[in-house]
Design a protein that fits this description.
By secondary structure, the protein is mainly β. It has one domain: Porin (Beta Barrel). The chain starts with a helix and ends with a strand.
């Protein structure tokens, strides 16, 4: 009798849960996806697996050439949820949310040239957006890939590779895409002007929840983005990729402040050192423009013979940009740290905030040996146009001098094997070159070179 009573109570307690779950699954279609990724990385410098730059060739015993690194990880695995909901305002509605487990925060151990990952293995938000699709118009609200010039046709084995060259970044935005014709699309968006994830180099005070309230938030002007793209399959395709050409741009503003009676801001976390910053005399503010112009193209030089018949196909992709004040569009550090605005004192003593111009881009050449084996070659370069006056103004022994990068380059060669839609194996060699704004003391060079070999295995679900 007791068993029957316990069973009846359990069933009654479960009924609300069952009815709620039933109502949810009957109204919305939920699909779980993602992949498990294993990485094994060797580098001839003392670096973490999220390598994005080369440290200086000469350093302390912890750094360049004195020790190498063999790192293991699975933090680049991803988990996502796709929800297809009811029609709204005559549009097909959907939502998407995705996490990885690497966390975007990169900390320095004792200088900007030696990085270690913080909280590797903790879930970190990548995408979270809703989408409404009409026949020729789409509306996106939330966090996803943003900015013009994005061309995600690459197959790189490290998530941060090509990052300093305008590969793309995810940010909260409101975006409208209009398919003006079958081949011509116009995108317009208002975008968060600062990174909202916990990414080093976002230029703001990163709070516990990952939001950064910085000089761009103070300006209260969102970044305004637009892009025009032409696509056609008249020349054939390679997988989903067809001939395309796109041009776009971004405009925004930053409003840095300085204490009116105490000179430029000193960036330090010590209250004692910054007590002069909190001035009763008020603050002087300035406005620094952010702008960027981008271009991109994909060319199926030798298209696939038929859908899925990729053997012998050859594709070329290129994307480039130029602009100023782009620290949150061209991550990760230390290249982003060199792009920040700074105070320039004129000959008359006036202080004006300015930002350097930065230009860069990347290219890809992909060749399919068979339908399941293909080779990729990549090159990327970004140059920050720092004036000699700016470089000479950086104290030789400062942390800013350690991390201020003037030019960064990356060469990538990989072979990828897809035995079936669920499994991917890849082997990759990368070569990084970094030129720093100035040498530090007698024993730290202005240049760095790093060689990296990476094996990656992915299981898609």
């Amino acid at each position: 009798m007791k068993k029957l009573i316990i069973l009846a109570v359990a069933v009654l307690l479960a009924l609300p849960c069952v009815s709620y779950a039933g109502s949810a699954t009957s109204r919305w279609d939920l699909t779980i996806g993602g992949y498990v990724k294993f990485d094994l990385v060797w580098a001839d410098d003392y670096m973490n697996p999220d390598i994005t730059f080369a440290p200086r060739d000469n350093g302390t015993s912890k750094n360049s050439q004195d020790y190498q690194a063999l790192t293991w990880g699975a933090g680049e695995s991803r988990l996502n949820f796709l929800i297809k909901g009811p029609d709204t305002w005559g549009a097909k509605s959907s939502a998407f949310i995705e996490f990885d487990f690497r966390v975007g925060n990169v900390l320095s151990t004792d200088s900007a040239t030696r990085s270690q990952l913080n909280s590797y293995g903790v879930a970190s938000l990548r995408h979270a957006f809703m989408k409404f699709d009409w026949p020729t118009v789409s509306l996106i609200m939330g966090q996803t890939w943003t900015g013009p010039g994005i061309l995600p046709c690459f197959c790189i084995l490290g998530v941060n590779e090509l990052g300093p060259f305008g590969k793309g970044i995810w940010r909260p935005e409101i975006k409208v895409s209009w398919m003006a014709t079958k081949n011509f699309t116009v995108d317009f968006a208002v975008v968060s002007p600062y990174n909202t994830d916990k990414y080093a180099g976002n230029g703001g005070s990163t709070l516990a929840n990952g939001l950064a309230n910085d000089d761009f938030a103070r300006s209260q002007i969102p970044d305004i983005m637009t892009e025009f793209t032409y696509k056609t399959d008249a020349c054939g395709k390679i997988g989903p990729w067809m001939l395309q050409v796109g041009f776009g741009g971004v405009y925004g503003q930053e409003k840095p402040i300085d204490p009116a009676a105490n000179g430029p801001t000193t960036y330090t976390t010590s209250y004692a050192a910054t007590s002069g910053f909190w001035s009763a005399n008020g603050y002087d503010d300035d406005t620094v423009d952010r702008w960027m112009v981008t271009g991109k193209t994909y060319i199926p030089i030798i298209p696939e013979k038929a859908p899925g018949k990729l053997a012998g196909s050859l594709g070329l992709a290129m994307a480039g940009f130029t602009g100023q004040n782009l620290r949150s569009y061209v991550p990760p550090p230390p290249i982003a740290n060199a792009m920040i605005s700074y105070d320039r004192v004129s000959a008359t003593g006036d202080i004006n905030a300015v930002a350097p111009v930065v230009s860069g881009g990347w290219g890809q050449l992909a060749f399919y040996l068979t339908d399941t084996v293909w080779f990729g070659g990549y090159y990327g370069q970004t140059v920050v146009s720092l004036s000699n006056r700016r470089k000479n103004s950086i104290p030789q022994t400062s942390a800013a001098a350690l991390g201020s990068v003037e030019r960064i380059q990356q060469y990538i060669f990989n072979v990828v094997y897809d035995p079936n839609p669920a499994v991917r194996l890849g082997l990759e060699y990368s070569y990084f070159q970094t030129h720093y704004a100035r040498s530090i003391r007698p024993y730290l060079d202005s240049d760095g070179n790093t060689n990296v070999v990476r094996f990656a295995a992915q299981y898609f679900f």
